[in-house]
Amino acid sequence: MESRTVIEKGQKLQVVEYDDKEHFAGNKDYEIVVGENASFEMYRIQNLDDDAALTQNFNIKQLRDSRVHIVVISFNGGDLRNNITINIDGEGCETNVYGLYLTDRKQHVENNLKVNHNVPHCSSFTKFKGIVDDEASAVFNGHVYVAPGAQKTDAQQNNSNILLTSTAKINTQPFLEIYADDVKCNHGATVGQLDEQALFYMQQRGIPYEEARMLMKFAFIGEVVDHVSFESFAERLRHLIEKRICGELPSCGDCKLCK
Predict the structure, then answer these.
(1) Of 117, 204, 105, 99, which is closest to residue 161 (Cα–Cα)?
(2) DSSP secondary structure letters along 168-236
(3) pTM over 0.85
(4) CA distances from 108 to 131, 136, 150, 175, 197 (A)
(5) Contact by Cβ (8 Å): 162, 131
(6) What is the per-residue pLDDT across 70-91, written as a single tens digit (0 to 9) for each?
(7) Do 76 and 104 meet the contact criterion of CB atoms below 8 Å apart?
(8) Which neighbouring-strand residues pair with 13?
(9) Contacts (Cβ under 8 Å, ≥6 apart) of 192
(10) Which of 10, 150, 184, 242 is the most core-located residue (most Cβ within 10 A)?
């Protein structure tokens, strides 16, 4: 499936989409051109069953003074792959991409992101967070490219993960490729477990162990939802995240966002 969207000069497009088909398998290709001084805002929710396999390819082109804001949340899915390529081709652009993935059982989620700073005076901010449980796995590949002459680039990239079992796996690779000398760029990745001392501290203050674990997981991933601009939608997402980390959201079923 292929689609092409052109956002004209000065226009604004906001998109909320969710994938929730059972046993779904397929590829989707999206080409999006964000015109001069235009804005593109996308929230994509993935909540499929363990037999689903979905690959989504986003190719986004930004022109002068345009803004892109993307949030991708993966609740469930057997094999999910999100490939996002953003070409910043006009000065004064702003790009923000946030991601959240919650995997368990034998699920696999992969996020591949490349941001090409092809011109000067632009900024990009990328933050992906994940919690991996059971025998699940996740991959994050982040690549920021700063072209020769793309001075005054400000590019920040971060990936943080929590592994809940010894059999859960994460492969994270943030990467900077810089060919300009007057830039502000950094990247980082962390992989860890829930803080046992913090859990003990919370139990000492009367919070049951399982509830303490849930609160810590929710605090870890809640930051991503803070970047959702629609408050009613953000509240719905927080509710779904709480259900997911409590093991009560195996697939969308009765929990579609539209209900």
Answers:
(1) 99
(2) -EEEEEEEEEE--SS-EEEEEEEEE---HHHHHHHHHTT--HHHHHHHHHHHHHHHHHTT-S-HHHHHH
(3) yes
(4) 12, 6, 36, 22, 30
(5) yes
(6) 999 999 889 999 999 999 999 9
(7) no
(8) 40
(9) 161, 162, 163
(10) 150
